[in-house]
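testing teh design pipeline on a random one, pls ignore if ur not involved
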């Protein structure tokens, strides 16, 4: 979409992405190539949607949110998660699941006539509060999780990091 076709609020939002106020309340110009603002250009938006899985063990009683994509869950099933500080067996005990969606937005501005490209990326994750809790993953997600688990299991585990004090 040409920048010229944007409404006033959209133009202001775009301006705030490219130029922002610093701590002193003055405008910053991160590009120096556009000191006179954004006058012409083309704006494109792409959206990538990925399923997100949240799971827990019914024996634990309640959900402690740990949303992850199929690849992350497959790795956690094989090796655990240092991020969540959980062992593989804790993930293997999951028997309750919620499926959500992670939307990744990529907003690209290409200015004219210099063809300067700026890309802004955002993401958000949604879980429908009305959606049923599942006892098992849907087949297409389960297949992707299993492939990721097999890949992770075939990789050697990294040894824990060690800290060596510097010599004195």
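output:
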């Amino acid at each position: 979409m040409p920048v010229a076709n944007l409404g006033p609020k959209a133009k202001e939002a775009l301006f705030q992405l490219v130029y922002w106020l610093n701590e002193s309340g003055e405008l910053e110009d991160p590009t120096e190539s556009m000191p006179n603002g954004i006058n012409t250009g083309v704006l494109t938006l792409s959206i990538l949607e990925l399923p997100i899985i949240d799971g827990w063990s019914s024996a634990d009683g309640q959900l402690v949110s740990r949303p992850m994509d199929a690849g992350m869950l497959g790795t956690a099933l094989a090796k655990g998660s240092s991020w969540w500080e959980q062992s593989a067996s804790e993930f293997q005990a999951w028997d309750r699941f919620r499926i959500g969606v992670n939307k990744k937005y990529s907003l690209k501005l290409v200015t004219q006539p210099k063809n300067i490209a700026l890309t802004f990326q955002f993401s958000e994750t949604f879980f429908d509060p009305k959606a049923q809790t599942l006892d098992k993953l849907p087949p297409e997600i389960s297949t992707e999780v299993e492939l990721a688990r097999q890949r992770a299991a075939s990789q050697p585990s990294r040894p824990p990091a060690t800290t060596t004090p510097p010599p004195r």
